[in-house]
Amino acid sequence: MRHLLATRELSYDHALAILDTAQEMATVSDRSIKKLPTLRGQTVVNLFFEDSTRTRTSFEAAAKRLSADVLNFAVKTSSVSKGESLKDTVQTLEAIGGDAIVMRHWASGAAQQLANFGWSSSAIINAGDGTHEHPTQALLDAFTLRNRLHGTQATGKDLNGVHVVIVGDILHSRVARSNVWLLHTLGAKVTLSGPPTLMPVGVNTWPVEVNYDLDGILAQHPDAVMMLRVQAERMAGAFFPSPAEYTRGWGLTNDRYQTIADTDTLIMHPGPMNRGLEISAAAADSAQNTALEQVANGVSVRMAVLYLLLAGQPGQ
Ligand code: CP
């Protein structure tokens, strides 16, 4: 594996290898071993053109736990504001010593362009590109699901037969896309539910079932219901349905939450959560909500990705 750009192109074997390596990383951390020497002398660059709390800090924590140096590149105060191109920016950072570039960009396909146009000799990790993909988010979601369902015996196991419902603003969600492809590769059944206006054209070609009857789906007690963040910033002022309509129809309101409260259905959210819009405080604060567990698992998953890209065997 040379880069991590999209779960759509991740094979079953590579996906399981990342999850199993993440399990080893988590086990080492549980043993209070805070730092491994594995990536000493390597430099990881965090290059974020969009804001982030979880992804940027957990990549930094992951790199530091593997003893890599980390350069956090502040796009807003950089020469990007003077018109410097992505290609020149990345090549400048490589000249300073970057071995891996972790990039979040507002343009769908930006990570592919960097990796495939010969602009960079580094390992490229897509930390979210436009509405396209967010592969490490899907990997940490799968890791969380696998651990919840298989416990400490999770290594080597996939998600065959697991039912995951992804709810909300599918249209703008790179998290939804990455999860659809990865969950499908790992054998899970995926149902998408949300406002028809926020369902992508072409969704009928995805390996999913689309079902607009959210209450009916929740009554089936799926293994997990993944509530997506409503991405108002990508709607260019055209918020339709209105926030109140959205919550009534597609939010995990207190009433809707009662359908799955105290069952085995996990409530997942990639964060940041819009409390009161796509998820009620009661659901967000319930023991069934794995959002913080997902964040914690993100460090192990990102350690695994950095390890496999920078220290794994050639051709793996
Ligand atoms: N889930 C996620 O990508 O969160 P951040 O935007 O905070 O990185």
Automatic annotation (TrEMBL):
Entry binding sites for carbamoyl phosphate: 54-55, 104, 134, 137, 271-272
Ranges for domain Aspartate/ornithine carbamoyltransferase carbamoyl-P binding: 2-146
Catalytic activity: carbamoyl phosphate + L-aspartate = N-carbamoyl-L-aspartate + phosphate + H(+)
Keyword tags: Pyrimidine biosynthesis, Transferase
Tagged with keyword Transcription regulation: no
EC number assigned by the record: 2.1.3.2
Nucleotide-binding recorded as keyword: no
Assigned GO CC terms: cytosol
Pathway: Pyrimidine metabolism; UMP biosynthesis via de novo pathway; (S)-dihydroorotate from bicarbonate: step 2/3
One BP term from GO: 'de novo' pyrimidine nucleobase biosynthetic process
A single MF term (Gene Ontology): amino acid binding
Domain Aspartate/ornithine carbamoyltransferase Asp/Orn-binding: 161-309
Binding-site positions, L-aspartate: 82, 174, 229
PROSITE patterns for this protein: CARBAMOYLTRANSFERASE
Role played: Catalyzes the condensation of carbamoyl phosphate and aspartate to form carbamoyl aspartate and inorganic phosphate, the committed step in the de novo pyrimidine nucleotide biosynthesis pathway.
Subunit structure: Heterododecamer (2C3:3R2) of six catalytic PyrB chains organized as two trimers (C3), and six regulatory PyrI chains organized as three dimers (R2).
Family: Belongs to the aspartate/ornithine carbamoyltransferase superfamily. ATCase family.
Name of this chain's protein: Aspartate carbamoyltransferase
Organism: Enteractinococcus coprophilus
UniProt gene name: pyrB
